[in-house]
User: Fold these one by one.
Assistant:
Number 1:
Amino acid sequence: MTETMNRALLPAGLHDVLPREAAFEATIVERLMAEFALNGFERVKPPLIEFEASLLSGPGAAMATQTFRLMDPISQRMLAIRPDMTLQVARIAVTRLANEPRPLRLSYGGQVLRVKGSQLRPERQFGQVGVELIGALQPTADAEVVLLAYAALKAVGAANISVDLNVPTLVPSVCRGLDLPEDETARLRQALDRKDAAEVAAVGGRAADLLAGMMGASGPADRAVELLAGLDLPEEAEADRRRLTEVVRLIRDAAPELMLTVDPVEHRGFEYQTGTSFTLFSRGVRGELGRGGRYRAGGGPSGEPSTGFTLYLDTVLRAVPDPAPAPRLFLPIGTDAADGARLRSEGWITVRALEALDDPAAEARRLRCTHIFTGGQVHPAA
Amino acid sequence: MTETMNRALLPAGLHDVLPREAAFEATIVERLMAEFALNGFERVKPPLIEFEASLLSGPGAAMATQTFRLMDPISQRMLAIRPDMTLQVARIAVTRLANEPRPLRLSYGGQVLRVKGSQLRPERQFGQVGVELIGALQPTADAEVVLLAYAALKAVGAANISVDLNVPTLVPSVCRGLDLPEDETARLRQALDRKDAAEVAAVGGRAADLLAGMMGASGPADRAVELLAGLDLPEEAEADRRRLTEVVRLIRDAAPELMLTVDPVEHRGFEYQTGTSFTLFSRGVRGELGRGGRYRAGGGPSGEPSTGFTLYLDTVLRAVPDPAPAPRLFLPIGTDAADGARLRSEGWITVRALEALDDPAAEARRLRCTHIFTGGQVHPAA
């Protein structure tokens, strides 16, 4: 027994997913992927491991401390287990699919591993599903991915979804546009991260005024874009603002009922993003359902303008209603194979007896069957 | 460009699966899993990595040289990436699901990694899908898993399926039953592995006669069981033979059209198996579609009598017809969101325009769309 117990022991943050839950998870993944496919996003499947040098190059470097590494006895080079699929999909887009017409719509779903769980997500293995829309600079692209995330989450039954829009480039644009010295920029950035209005005001000058105005605009999207429109932003920041306004308009037009907020000074977690970004929540559910936003596929300013999102499966599963237990139909020995096939084609889950039984109904109940097939008919097993 | 090309480089035996193929693979997996679920097999999902000591203990030791290992900085212990899912599922059955009623029907689908590909299967990452039927000694259990593999493969469109039945315990039973010395047993085993009838005969004695008779029985199942019935087998081997005969009868009754053969002297690749085993083929397709058979879950003679099978996804994909390309419908800018939703609910894959276009039909064709939605109607894009 001790040996058996030892064998059941798994490393921290790793789990066996058991019946019901495993099937439910797979169903949710396939429904999300089906929604992506119906919207023209085509599935790709990168490998679980890659050369460390390619997986962790460029923007991947940020994940280096989170990544399991191993030696490949074949190539004698270091490999890494993917901690994230987004960069793999971007890699596929700019290499193998470089000659496909743009915009390129790709989707993906798979498992990732991280060396350490976080406080919010102690799991070290979890599922990611998402899309990338590559080679598209238009605000319609930003709106499309937000609306797709919303539609897909609704399709799997997630309720009370809200989207928080951010523009992580906006604060830097303001500071750059006003030629703010580096130390003041850093001080403002810190104050904004703490949402410390007093500290922002203490810096003084036009930048502090503008940033205070931006911070005050945080909240429901319609009000936020109205307040931001009243600010006299430097040129680059003004372009960001106009773009955000257009994205908000497109989303509001297509989904007026969606709870949409804007936080124009938030940037944490979006270090990789180059424009309109967003986080998805479900009211009352701990953690983010997912996040996404603009980036340059291939990395650097010469990369292809792209946007996309990743949904975190563990959080999504907490946000959707538990599935009803499926009825199970016990087939006593001697049941005709054709009857079994017909019943399954009608959607019954069938459970075969392996031997003749004195009391088939009792056996049906023991095997958690809700129904039993006797005399050519389905009967409740209770 | 050189940097981009380098990033595209993957370790030998690892691949990016691209659109069409990735979607097709996922569809096949889910159809197989759906067939398993309809037959009462419930999905479990073990983690990609485990403690090396538990993953490679007992029967797992045979996979040790095929397994990637890595250090866990959290537990400071060695982890292993699973080279196979069968043993993980057996582990779940005898630990976490020890108190579930037997027989326990479990299914699984996921990716495995191996240090080296084989000549027949150069891939180092591939998908496994399968079932385990745990805690059942009856021949009906053996027949059930063979018939389920057959039904599932038919359901995904694999044609010309054949099943080769083996009893890897039969030759050892004969040799033990006749108190054959070890060296003669080894000599006969080698001769049988080479299908070398002359060498078998050269050993002489009753064992050589029986084994020659068994070797001659290889072929179509009905003939094989008839020929085996004419042999005067020692007690233990006779029990194996009767069981095989019953399994053949059950399979032939339920699926008379299935090409079913028996090779009573084959054992290679079934070192782990303790009874009726089988290999699945599709005529004209290179490699095995899958294999399965009896074993003891938990390992050792005290383990639970179990049977199951694993399908190899790469071979299965070669055995099923390529999917027809799906029609894609281009939605010009300004298409009503409700129209798009309705068209998708009718099964259309829609591809949104991101801006107003002078020639939407040309753009539709450029994006590989077969149809375009204009004037409230679907039109061919050609």
Note: Residues 235-254 of chain B form the longest helix (20 residues).
Number 2:
Amino acid sequence: MNQTIRMVGFDADDTLWKSEDYYREAEAEFRRIVGEHVDLDDVGARLYAVEKRNLALFGYGVKGMTLSMVEAAIDITEGRIPASDIHRIVSMAKDLLRHPVELLPGVADAVEAVASRHDIVLITKGDLFHQEAKVRESGLSRWFQRIEIVSEKDAPTYARLLKEFGVAPSEFVMIGNSLRSDIAPLLELGAWGIHMPYHVTWAHEAEADVDCAHPRLRVVHAALELPDLVHAISQLAAST
Amino acid sequence: MNQTIRMVGFDADDTLWKSEDYYREAEAEFRRIVGEHVDLDDVGARLYAVEKRNLALFGYGVKGMTLSMVEAAIDITEGRIPASDIHRIVSMAKDLLRHPVELLPGVADAVEAVASRHDIVLITKGDLFHQEAKVRESGLSRWFQRIEIVSEKDAPTYARLLKEFGVAPSEFVMIGNSLRSDIAPLLELGAWGIHMPYHVTWAHEAEADVDCAHPRLRVVHAALELPDLVHAISQLAAST
């Protein structure tokens, strides 16, 4: 078969730019605020439990996380937290939504190089409004044929998108830091996955069962490696 | 020219199903909660001012509104509101996100009838996660070729969508309750607009300057009127 790679997808948060670090800082600040009212060592775990419980209702993103933080702060302190400290939590969310977009090393060059050979698309989940703002600020949007912001990155969502793009799974490579959201569903559909781990990963995103030796999976540790690897995958796909 | 209507777009909230009523109820509840701590008659206006100020950061939807309510409740009571009442505000948001989808009268039949003659798409703004849940629950999703959830319904957004759909503005009719979001930008682009007013409209959505006698604008007051009107527009467009 003369089949080759026709399109390359990029995840955004913690693949193109920093994100989880900001969430970690917010969580540390949350623990400090709540820690002024209770002496507990499981504040982080209790916040995660509330977030996880609310995920089906709020979805991903800063606003849902903040509402979970407000709820958790009240629960954990049994209502003793003053309004002024809840205000600090809401202000923290606003800072998080305003933080500048910081591209990860080598990303700008890598995206341009991959785009010079292939159609590229950006596929990210989370809050529509915040993600669009980040894409705009990143300066990268001109390289992407399409920018898709979805509510969940699972196999049915990717199948729908590939159908809309008119690309078969075997012709598609997805690049991202999350095994759960960027890699596992693509391998399941018959597409290729390039895992680019980030130094911190939200517990939720790390929950995935992927075979490290899967023939359509590759791992890189720097954006610099991407253009050659995509080219190699394209040649390999064409030869099989 | 043998030009005709090739695609019809529907707005969702307060066009296909009830929405603003739920927001109004939440706002009334907010005024009751805050009213237990202060004796002011401009609580609603102060909430709207906070919402409007946060719109550029939060975008539309229940989660952003709720964060604005938490912020406004703390501001208005000068920090005197107890955590338990803030918890009531967050719970109210969760109820709002869980409320069942209630189709407006005649909508199910009208959507099916329009879909029998034209490709139809759903174009809505607001929170991605919540809107997707509502579309799923509405039972209408099978009729729509595409479901587009966008962060702002302005002329550039509609222009991008029409380009993606491969449809010229003159071949497109948009149906919705908001002059600002569903009608004005389409008339500007050269498309058709069918305004279907709802009995309540959020102040923000009513802010639009539309000529009632615009040749590509029609107004209906019941979904029942839609199939014949779309057909008539299509014939008119073909004859000019």
Note: The mean pLDDT of chain B is 92.
